[in-house]
Amino acid sequence: xxxxxxxxxxxxxxxxxxxxxxxxxxxxxxxxxxxxxxxxxxxxxxxxxxxxxxxxxxxxxxxxxxxxxxxxxxxxxxxxxxxxxxxxxxxxxxxxxxxxxxxxxxxxxxxxxxxxxxxxxxxxxxxxxxxxxxxxxxxxxxxxxxxxxxxxxxxxxxxxxxxxxxxxxxxxxxxxxxxxxxxxxxxxxxxxxxxxxxxxxxxxxxxxxxxxxxxxxxxxxxxxxxxxxxxxxxxxxxxxxxxxxxxxxxxxxxxxxxxxxxxxxxxxxxxxxxxxxxxxxxxxxxxxxxxxxxxxxxxxxxxxxxxxxxxxxxxxxxxxxxxxxxxxxxxxxxxxxxxxxxxxxxxxxxxxxxxxxxxxxxxxxxxxxxxxxxxxxxxxxxxxxxxxxxxxxxxxxxxxxxxxxxxxxxxxxxxxxxxxxxxxxxxxxxxxxxxxxxxxxxxxxxxxxxxxxxxxxxxxxxxxxxxxxxxxxxxxxxxxxxxxxxxxxxxxxxxxxxxxxxxxx
Length: 505
Known about the structure:
- There is one protein chain.
- The chain is of the alpha/beta class.
- The protein is built from 19 helices and 11 strands.
- The strands form 2 sheets. A 7-stranded mixed beta sheet has the order 7-6-5-8-9-11-10.
- A hairpin with a 2-residue loop joins strand 3 and strand 4.
- Helix 1 runs antiparallel to helix 2 and helix 1 packs antiparallel against helix 7.
- The longest helix has 30 residues.
- The chain is elongated.
């Protein structure tokens, strides 16, 4: 009986890990964690009910059926991540494949408990209430262990692909353990052991080829050769290098979770437009939120009279890469090595909340990724801007990267409305960045202001001029300001605006 309860524990832990793996992979590839979580949980729970009903027909031979279900779950669950990655990279068939995978996993998980219950009753008959209580208690404890092991043990020690294969091995172990305890006769146990060994060999082969498989699949997602790839605690980081563009310039590109962050061919247009209007005034102390690639920092450090720069970025892997990886560190001119820079790896929202009463800055540069997920939507909320307002000196200037006023016009104007809702005066503007298209920013100040460059600005700017900025404040009628909602933590309107704006592009 103890062996069966151990099997219940393992089954529950493995089942929950498979669900979390599907949610995590969907978030990595598509970025919508709420949608992925909802689909996976809903489909899996529905399939578990179907599996429990299907298992009623297998109760005549519960031991054989349990072994088949457990080994089937090891194969389906263990190969779920590589197969879905394959569907995404090669077939562009991810969501239907994910639904089918979640259904198959749920079906097999749902069949486990009825079969184990039947085996327990055959070993030692007891009233139904006590049997259900025992199994549920162990099942919930197993789910707790699996849920905690996934983020705190499996992902840190292994990547997502290897982690699911390791978990699948536990399913095989549970099958063999039950077979060892209950099968009668050496021949039948030997047959079961051979099948378990074959499944383990299949999982081990996939683990052996995992790096090669992942590299091949990942390369299919990018136009240019990948020169660096890693999975940090927060995101997938990829750097590519393309052919020569213009006068002997290779096109180095940084992608985070598949989204382009910059192209070395034209990033100066983006960063000059982002940074220099915020420096048109006092700029002794500067705060950069985001900007872990160091390119906005490079522009700030062009001013000799800047005394201190605080850069707050969530992912230390990005800033470490920008500091040590030559294709990027040379592009940002080794800006992180400047003694005026203080780098902090932290969630920007939390950092601002903890420092809003103690820190003041002459210029604040907000360079976050687009708000296309719940994690980034809070960084465009009225609450964050309200906390930033007292951190900005009375004559200070803050600039916020605001997405594309062409591709996502509603999201762009939502940023301006949300900043204005805090009492700040705003000046929206946009420029052409070929890699991104028409791209916009919002300048915010305590009092009335206009878009301008510093009177004493660094020599050698390649894009930003007074004439360019004058033109940048003009918006055509089809992309002019329009009514809409302010984005808050409880009602992140900008998330829907961003997602709906990019549909079809």
